[in-house]
Amino acid sequence: MEVPYTDTNRPDTGLYNAKVGIWLFLASEVMLFGALFSAYILLRVGAMEGHWPTGLLDVGPGFVNTLVLILSSVTVVMAWASLKLNNFKKFKLYQGITVVCALLFVVIKSFEYNSKFTHHDVILNDGMRVDGHLVEETDEFIVLSHPVSYPAEKGIGYRPTAIKEAEAHAHEAGDDHHHAEDRKISKEEIDKRTTWGPWANTYLAIYFTLTGLHALHVIAGALVIAYFWGPGSKMWKTHPEQFANRIEVSGLFWHFVDLVWIFLFPILYLL
Amino acid sequence: MSGHSPEEIRKSVKSYMVVFGILIIGTIVTVLASYFDFGSMTANIIVALIIATFKASCVALIFMHLNAEKKTIYMTLAFTWFFFMGLMGLTIWASEDKPNFTVAPNDIPAVAAAPAETDH
User: Fold this and answer.
1) Do B2 and B60 share a domain, yes or no?
2) Within 10 A of A44 (CB to CB), how many other CB atoms are there?
3) B40 and B86 share a domain?
């Protein structure tokens, strides 16, 4: 039995089945990410004054990842257009670039995650808070590079001000290319210590939840697109119209993944 | 989509390239705008969301072909929009339903210890 309306349009809706299906699925995905975005808004608005961090994320990798996803969005639609123009070789090229972009996104994301998991945040016995990248640890001490230090009672929201103050002091001292020296901290001085994982504060919890769920969507989409680039492309020889529709439908999912990132990037990295 | 002629597809390819350029420029503008203070945090957020919404619209209308879709898809998206706005609206409406902290959590005085239980 042949499944109907895989390559022809239903007379009532004017659409093939998979297109209706994917849009219904994307509608549910809007609610999924919408729920998390609204959670982010609630958490941010409800945070105590001075206790919502900003500037914890490197804008550079986020910016590059945005460009990577935008490029992949173009190549995935070009892959579909190539099939509609009967150019299978170009389809393979564009679809392949899409998969490479997806892998690149995930690789950059894992470097970002790793930099967070190796970024240590300590509260000292004297009430000062220091955070920095862990470069050395022994039984007696830790060494943090690019340390940022401020009174713990001021809250993590004070961090950008502390950085500006340190730069201003360096400028007054004639050091315009200020580079904070590595800070060696004896473990006896440390009251509390954590790394910048999702356990550290509410902002990082929602950051890892949102970007982690998004990354899972990137991986799932990449697997589907890779399948259609590889073994799934056999269908082009037997059912070319249906295959083109599959590429369109998987491309729609991919565009949605890009759409979510278009909102995630400014909200998490820039605001 | 079986109704697309090669000529229509070639025209679409040109629009894909234009949108690609718009998205790259939009991303650069997003980052540059983040260095400006538009007067208040609310204004900064609104500017960022306007740019993001414009970029998302370009992706949705051109890449996802929503500029020439069928009524069934538009109806699906209309319902989605309604429920999404309800989700965001109710959450934002509830954002003021929170304890009004007047002291930092660390300063909350310890509760007096309960009297010890004695066996009867």
Assistant:
1) yes
2) 17
3) no
**How far is A267 from A36, CA to CA, in rounded Å?**
12
Quote the domain boundaries for residue A95: 17-117+200-270
Give the total number of structural domains in chain A: 2
Kindly identify which residue of chain B lies nearest to residue A34, measuring between CA atoms: B84
Check pLDDT > 70 for residue A49: yes
Q: Are residues A104 and A137 in the same domain?
A: no
The arithmetic mean of pLDDT across residues B39-67, rounded, is: 93
Q: CA–CA separation, A221 vs A89, rounded Å?
A: 21
CA distances from A39 to A32, B81, B96 (A): 11, 18, 14
* Domain stops at, among A176, A195, A214: A195
| Chain B hits for A97, Cβ within 8 Å | none
Q: What is the pTM of this model?
A: 0.89
| Spatial contact of B2 and A8, defined as CB atoms under 8 Å apart | yes
Q: How far is CA A220 from CA A11, A53, A225, B95, in A?
A: 32, 31, 9, 34
Write the CATH number for A211: 1.20.120.80
Closest CA to A123 of A158, A156, A152: A152
Q: What is the mean pLDDT of residues B45-67?
A: 94
Same domain for A75 and A38?
A: yes
Contact between residue A78 and residue B16 where contact means Cβ atoms under 8 Å apart:
yes
* B39-45 own/partner pairs: CB under 8 Å, 24+ apart: B41/A271, B44/A271, B45/A271
The question of ipTM being above 0.90 is answered as no
Nearest beta carbon to residue A38 from set B49, B59, B88: B88
Q: Which of B9, B76, B83 sits opposite A24 (nearest CB)?
A: B76
The pLDDT assigned to B97 comes to 79
